[in-house]
Every structure is written in C-alpha cells, then in structure tokens.
Design a protein that fits this description.
The chain is mainly alpha-helical. The chain has helices at 3-13, 33-45, 51-74, 78-82. The longest helix has 24 residues, at 51-74.
C-alpha cells in the first residue's frame, strides 16, 4: 500500500453523516463486543495472521451495535437503546 491508496481509503470512510457498511465483512452482528476484542488481541499477541480479520469483524460488531441503538432511539425506545449490549453478555 502506498500513500495515495491510504489517502483514498481514508477519504472514502471519513464521514460523520452516516455509517459506511464495509463490503469486506458484511455482518458483525450485535454480539457482545468484549469477547471479540479479546480474541483479536490474543491472536495478535501470538502473531496469528487471523488477528487483522478478527479486528475487522469486531469493528463491524461495534458499528452494528451502534446502528441498533440508533434505530431504537429513532423509534422512541430510549431505554432499549441504552441496553444495547456493548461489552458483556450481562
């Protein structure tokens, strides 16, 4: 990757107006985030090449949890939006 390619990628995803859905990993789901982050970090510590894809899936899970909370808020379900599971299964 060179500077021009990096600049193109950053420009594509530099938006605070909407969530950009990556086509690399379509679904992260709304599973608890911490387990996925921990798995990615452990893979990274052991130099497992899967760590990069695990971080990407974790990032999509972050996005999907935020989108879920945003949809609940738009529908007036503010208490449910606050209960979107971000870190633990509890």
């Amino acid at each position: 990757m060179n500077d021009r390619e990096l600049e193109r990628i950053l420009k594509k995803f530099n938006s605070d107006q909407k969530f950009i859905i990556s086509d690399a990993y379509l679904d992260g789901g709304v599973d608890p985030l911490f387990q996925r982050l921990e798995r990615a970090a452990r893979d990274q510590m052991s130099h497992d090449p899967a760590s990069l894809s695990r971080y990407a899936i974790w990032a999509n899970t972050v996005r999907d949890n935020i989108c879920s909370a945003e949809n609940k808020m738009r529908n007036g379900n503010h208490q449910l939006a606050c209960r979107v599971t971000l870190w633990t299964s509890g």
